Amino acid sequence: MSSTVTPLKHETLVIVGNGMVGHHCIEQLIEQDALARYDVHVFGEERQRAYDRVHLSEYFGGRDAESLAMCEADYYSRHGVQAHLGEQVLEIDRECKQVVTGNGRQPYDKLILATGSYPFVPPIPGAEGNSRLVYRTLEDLDGIRAAATGARRGVVVGGGLLGVPQEGQPRAHRGPPQFPRMGVQGGPEALEGGGGGGPDPAGPQIRSGGSADTGA
């Protein structure tokens, strides 16, 4: 009497987003041997593979993109994950169960959205182009660095995990003559855990819960 073993059906799992959460999801799938059942595709809008956004400010201090990466360059291919980097998902066709990108369509059986968040930009008149920058990605930081060349004042709106470290970085990067005063707008919690005995009078001026002081 012989028995026939029916192989497990391979389903296609698509992950939209290759940030820290999307990458952690892939790590968990690999650890739990889920790739034995799923063909995994991950789509990331950025060209770089997942990197540590928590320490993004260190990019201004000399760290490069590779040192911020959360895995080795061959990690995905080594584990059979198909990474589509620099390929933005433009649409989800739920009826056909496909994600749509500029390169075509990718069918899926299961779909995980790990797209993260987007920075809120206040509707400030005149805040356009290089006079209004956001702080979220490596490309954003490259834009800030380029826009800060020759600038004398800057304002950081947001006193969270990225905002507070950021307020001193451009001045430190380009030297004291640049950015003699910057402002950080946030709630009282923005002043907690900052270390030291308060802001340097000659350095960035932090206001809690009010308008940012640009020194103008």
Could you name the key traits of this structure?
216 residues; alpha/beta; FAD/NAD(P)-binding domain; 2 domains; 19% helix; 23% strand; disordered C terminus
According to DSSP, the number of beta strands is 10
Strands across the major sheet, in which order? Answer: 3-2-1-7
| N to C succession of SSEs | EHEHHEEEEEHEHHEE
Beta fraction: 15-25%
| Structural class assignment | alpha/beta
Describe this structure in words.
The termini are far apart. The protein has 216 residues and is an alpha/beta fold. The protein is built from 6 helices and 10 strands. It has a 4-stranded parallel sheet with strand order 3-2-1-7, with no helix packed on it. Strand 1, helix 1 and strand 2 form a beta-alpha-beta unit. It is globular and about 60 Å long. The chain is 19% helix and 23% strand. The protein has 2 domains: 11-113, 3-Layer(bba) Sandwich (FAD/NAD(P)-binding domain), CATH 3.50.50.60; 129-208, no CATH class.
